[in-house]
Write a structure and sequence with these properties.
single chain, alpha/beta, Rossmann fold, N-(1-d-carboxylethyl)-l-norvaline Dehydrogenase, domain 2, 3 domains
């Protein structure tokens, strides 16, 4: 398989061309013949024109690539090695939503042939690839795994907005349904991943590794968020405490904040869901999730309390929220916890304006029912710097004087401006 891919006698297909799938497809397309499949014709047309819909990749990344972008199922039939990189979100009740990954499995079932390989990259709970996805492929195709085709799992490690830890520079965990498939999957990814691969002993081990990567981060951030509650009551700055503690060689450097997006804020629920199905209640993980999911309400409540202390009439107050995406320097708005801050403030009858240099205004309104404003106004009672975009990271008193009242409040969620602001009431997590 690997030699045939390199000779372009066989093709590799990537199903799902979001922030994970597109970089993989383009990287492989430097060396092998690739079919990039997405169900959105609009997105396919953008990529055909060298535009990344996720705004992560420059147009030059599309140049000199052997890749066919398509939304046509018939085109997929020419592929022999399939990589699935579709989203795996949770629903409103934090229950894993497997509809995208199961739909992708049905798609593969319609086009797979004897001798083909299927590798999932979508984040799932341990067992999902073999217990949920595989039966769909077998039922639709009439083929049997092991006998007719091979199955593998290689969890994605793409970090949106990170230009340093890119696909080729991160060790890739790989797994297969047997020794032969493990070797083929590993050697295929070695074509593009210069950092090398780690061969997991089973598909379940690889699935579990991905889940705990983000669960560990979630719990550490939850600890920082809880500390920020405690230190606030003590009247000391959390970030100053962390700077002091960070001088010890083995202190882990995490910081408080809003935990959104489609990884850290979602993946732990896949693990807790699977644990619950086995009769175990994961108290520590769920406690971390509860703490992190409550930070938007905490920030809003604390700001309203400060406004009241200044004798403000809350229905007449105006607040500017700067930043609406789920993290800095990206356009991705999925599961943005800034929305929790905004909606809580609105529930308190605060008048809120929201700006963001990256977020698409139409998409944001469609997703959350909230209109972004093109530019900040003046005479706000408070400003919430919710996302540490590069454009906001060097703001000073003079910048805030243009938009704030003299007795205005600055809420700097990530604490990056604490040395810059002297003329206003200021607080951070």
């Amino acid at each position: 398989m690997v030699e045939e891919l390199l000779k372009k006698e066989k093709k590799l297909a990537v199903i799902g061309l979001g922030y994970v799938g597109l970089p993989i497809a383009l990287e492989f397309a430097k060396t092998v013949s690739v079919i990039g499949f997405d169900i959105s014709q609009k997105r396919v047309e953008m990529m055909r024109n060298g535009i990344d819909p996720s705004e992560e990749l420059d147009s030059t990344e599309f140049e000199n690539r052997d890749i066919q972008f398509t939304a046509d199922l018939e085109d997929l039939k020419a592929a022999n090695f399939f990589i699935v990189a579709v989203p795996t979100p949770v629903d409103d009740h934090n229950v894993p939503d497997l509809k995208p990954v199961l739909a992708a499995s049905r798609t593969i079932g319609k086009v797979i042939k004897k001798g083909d390989y299927v590798v999932y990259e979508s984040t799932v709970y341990p067992g999902c690839t073999e217990e949920d996805c595989l039966p769909v492929i077998e039922k639709v195709s009439g083929l049997k795994m092991g006998k007719d085709f091979k199955l593998g799992y290689s969890p994605e490690r793409i970090n949106p907005g990170d230009k340093n830890h890119t696909l080729t520079k991160i060790v890739k965990v790989v797994s297969g349904c047997d020794e032969e498939s493990l070797d083929i999957v590993a050697r295929t990814y070695e074509i593009v991943v210069k950092a090398g691969v780690h061969r997991a002993s089973s598909i379940k081990v690889a699935e579990a590794a991905k889940i705990i990567e983000n669960t560990q981060r979630d719990l550490n951030i939850a600890l920082m968020n809880e500390l920020s509650h405690i230190f606030s009551l003590m009247g000391i700055n959390t970030y100053e405490v962390l700077e002091a503690a960070g001088t010890k060689w083995n202190f882990l450097k995490f910081s408080p904040g809003l935990v959104g997006g489609h990884c850290i804020g979602v993946d732990p629920y896949y693990l807790t869901y699977k644990a619950a199905s086995l009769g175990y209640t994961p108290e520590v993980i769920l406690a971390g999730r509860k703490t992190n999911d409550g930070m938007g309400a905490y920030i809003s409540k604390k700001l309203v309390q400060q406004l009241i202390k200044k004798n403000k009439q809350i229905p007449q107050t105006r607040v500017l929220v700067m930043g609406a995406t789920f993290k800095e320097n990206v356009s991705d708005i999925r599961n943005s916890k800034v929305v929790d801050v905004i909606k809580e403030l609105i529930n308190y009858s605060v008048n809120v304006d929201v700006i963001d240099p990256f977020a698409d205004h139409e998409d944001f309104h469609h997703e959350y029912g909230i209109h972004l404003v093109k530019e900040a106004g003046k005479e706000y009672d408070a400003v919430v710097v919710a996302v540490n975009h590069e454009q906001y990271s060097h703001l000073k008193d003079a910048d805030f004087k243009k938009v704030l009242k003299e007795d205005g409040i600055i809420v700097d969620v990530k604490g990056t401006l604490r040395k810059n602001v002297k003329a206003f009431d200021y607080w951070s997590l």
